[in-house]
Design goal:
The protein is of the alpha/beta class. Helix 12 links the parallel strand 6 and strand 7. Strands 3-4-2-1-5-6-7 form a seven-stranded parallel beta sheet, with helices on both faces. A five-stranded parallel beta sheet has the order 10-9-8-11-14, sandwiched between helices. A two-stranded antiparallel sheet has the order 12-13. 47% of the residues lie in helices and 14% in strands.
């Protein structure tokens, strides 16, 4: 919800959500993103290397040069390659930040990290990643990919080919020209979020300094940086603290040369909170419509279908995506309404705004049908941020009863943090869900207290049907922030 972020971060969130919706968002991940998962950063990676050289890593600012010194002394990079294998071969679970950026429909990921956490997280979220570890990989395309991960400094699977020391960085624009060209193009066409880069991270400076994006084509990118605290750190004096803060001010200003706006945060724990807000706002542009109808109660059948058709069309025209599982007696009206809107102005609306997920009809993959349906519901509802519940009945043993599947979808929505909005005036399970929520407002309306009155109005059997659609659209817009 708005109001809990600074104006600067609030503006970033709005911009980045729009870029995700338009397919123009990208992520550039640094070592800090993996550190919370147990992997080392550059200082930790090179601490033993520095000791071998008689140096103290905490006193060195150009860590890439330290790596070069080691190669010079040993006349070999084998020691560095072995260090990468030791540090990054162990298994680690992706962080919350990894999980969020992998769930979002971002198609482009760049990283200087050697670990496999980004691609592991994408796989866990049922996404097909095309991994680019070396220049040759750029000329091939993995079938059915929905994300590309550019590992511009190599991968733990081939530590001997990783970019590690200064002379490699200096020659990178020639040895890996295709990577540089591809990144330059992405920086023109996409909005990047640089995440996991610290104030002293050597990778960021070396990467950016070798990119040549003309000023006329430069767009604004964003980078999370931890704000230098005002309090004295350790044994430093006031003058040292002022120097530290002044140095960061210059660094922040310097990033603007590359079109990167620094987003200053007090603690790195704020990053998952900001990413969650991005995901929440993006998902609230996707509306899941749950319902089924063998009969329509107080509604005339054609009036009910016209209402669902019109609501679905209005959602598409409002810029929303519609998700539907093709519920009996409801699904066709949802789909036809969405398609009517899309094809009325194909240059404005997109077929991507309609996400159809018909339920499996036979057991498969060693799972029976109820288990498949449960898994299917989880994935389908997870695509949305708001769930509408309409009608909700079925025939069982010759009688019409409330649809338990609609209640299961309500439970999953609650579990996933999807905002539930039952249209109780349509009756059946939708009315039962409205009554359930209104009977326990502290549990169901804590995030949006104003929603209680709206749900109550929509549960009134005497509600003005001509105004219901407008009320629903108004609620959805308000929920989106």
């Amino acid at each position: 919800m708005t109001g809990k972020f600074s104006a600067e971060i609030e503006a970033f969130i709005r911009t980045y959500v729009k870029d995700i919706e338009n397919g123009g968002a990208a992520v550039f991940a640094g070592a800090g993103l993996s550190k919370s998962c147990g992997f080392v950063n550059w200082s930790e990676l090179l601490s033993e290397i520095a000791e071998e050289l008689g140096l103290k890593v905490e006193l060195e600012h150009d860590l890439i040069s330290v790596a070069q010194y080691h190669v010079n002394q040993k006349n070999s990079s084998n020691g560095l390659a072995r260090k990468i294998l030791e540090e990054f071969s162990e298994q680690a679970e992706p962080s919350e930040a990894h999980d969020i950026i992998s769930r979002l429909p971002i198609r482009t990921y760049w990283t200087t990290n050697y670990d496999t956490l980004i691609e592991d997280s994408l796989k866990q979220n049922y996404r097909v990643a095309d991994i680019k570890r070396k220049t040759d990989d750029l000329v091939t395309t993995r079938p059915k990919r929905d994300a590309v991960v550019y590992k511009m400094h190599g991968d733990v699977s081939s530590p001997g080919a990783a970019i590690l020391y200064k002379s490699q960085y200096e020659k990178y624009h020639k040895s890996h020209e295709a990577f540089v060209t591809t990144l330059s193009g992405d920086l023109i066409s996409k909005t990047f979020l640089f995440i996991g880069f610290s104030f002293t991270d050597p990778n960021l400076d070396y990467v950016l300094s070798r990119l040549h994006v003309p000023d006329d084509y430069r767009r604004t990118h964003y980078c999370f940086l931890r704000k230098e605290p005002a309090e004295l750190q350790g044994k430093e004096d006031e003058e040292s603290a002022k120097y530290r803060r002044r140095r960061q001010e210059h660094h922040v200003r310097d990033l603007l040369r590359f079109g990167i706006q620094a987003l200053l945060i007090d603690d790195y724990n704020e990053i998952p909170v900001i990413l969650k807000e991005i995901e929440s706002r993006f998902l609230k542009k996707t509306i899941f419509i749950s319902g089924s109808a063998e009969e329509y109660g107080a509604w005339d059948k054609q009036d009910a279908l016209n209402f669902v058709h019109s609501l679905s069309a209005s959602l598409v025209k409002g810029g929303y995506r519609v998700v539907n599982g093709f519920g009996w007696g409801i699904g066709s009206a949802v789909i036809n309404g969405a398609l009517d809107a899309i094809y009325s102005k194909p240059e404005k609306y997109s077929e991507d705004q309609l996400i159809m997920r018909p339920f499996p009809q036979v057991a498969s993959n060693g799972k029976d049908l109820p288990d498949l349906w449960h898994e299917y519901r989880h994935r389908m509802i997870g695509l949305s941020g708001i769930a509408l519940f309409i009608f909700g009945n079925k025939v069982k043993d010759g009688s019409v009863v409330n649809a338990d599947g609609v209640h299961k979808e309500f439970e999953i929505a609650q579990e996933k943090g999807v905002v539930a909005l039952p249209i109780g005036t349509t009756g059946y399970m939708a009315k039962a869900l409205a009554d359930e929520m209104l009977a326990d407002p502290a549990n169901h309306f804590s995030d949006y207290p104003w929603l209680e009155a709206e749900v109550a109005q929509l549960a009134d059997p005497a509600a003005n049907r001509a105004k219901i659609e407008r009320q629903i659209l108004s609620i959805i817009k308000k929920l989106g922030g």
